[in-house]
Please model this.
Amino acid sequence: PVARAGGVLVAMTAPRGRWLRGQAAVLQLDGWTVSEMALRAPAGLYVDWSAVHPRGDDTDARRKDREKKLAAFDDLLDEVKRYGAAREGRPDETPTNVRLESLLPLVSGDLPLIVDADLQSEIESAVVYAQSRGLKLIIYGGYDAAACAELLKNYDVPVIIASTYRLPLRRDDAYDASYTLPERLRKAGVRFAIGGPGAGSPGGAASARNLPYHAAVAAAYGLPHDAALRSITLSAAEILGVDDRIGSINEGKDATLLITDGDILETETHVQDAYIQGRKVDLGSRHKMLYEKYKQKYDRQR
Model:
């Protein structure tokens, strides 16, 4: 409810846990049932690529751990391919395996591999691996994405910037490295969206309500205003494969939109009304309820 009141009507959600985390989904933030909320489910396989590249002083141990995880991923994808071939060639003789069935769209290229990666080495490794396996790839996080922009552009790998409210990862990074990342990617010709905070960001997913202000920070540090607004609307929809439904106001698309009293990137702006697929959304929240409650208390004390 708090995110809706701030203008966030659609979100990508993904599991946490082990490095091979599971299926992501694009959800509308209103609805009675899962099927009513789901805009695209599944939307991709979410993998923590930083766990594939463990950190530490023991180089040999890190290499062995990385090779072990990649070999396990290779084995899984090979198993999915064999299963798909068996299902296509002998459907009556091949029993359904729900786990492998769910990964068939990944190996066929219908769904992307969504990789959580920030460091340049992680991003480059993910691109090389995806190309070697013929997988569509999306980078989530992308702190060092500008350092490998040519690679990302050449293979048309989009980046979902996890947050612009981030401290520098290294002591010698510029203080505004996260603030200027969207503009650096735009200048380099890399497709990107600003995704706002995820579970690993300050405040976690509960801070998704601040999404417009992540774009506003990027605009304050060089990103053109139109590009900033696009980065949290149409660009995000294009990267997640739902731009035929949402992301812009066009005939034939869902009526998922906001009515505000000003520029959505400005903190003074309030969302007046919100609609998801033409349904008016309740903008009430616990925050507003507590505000009204304690406003009455202090009004009586005056």
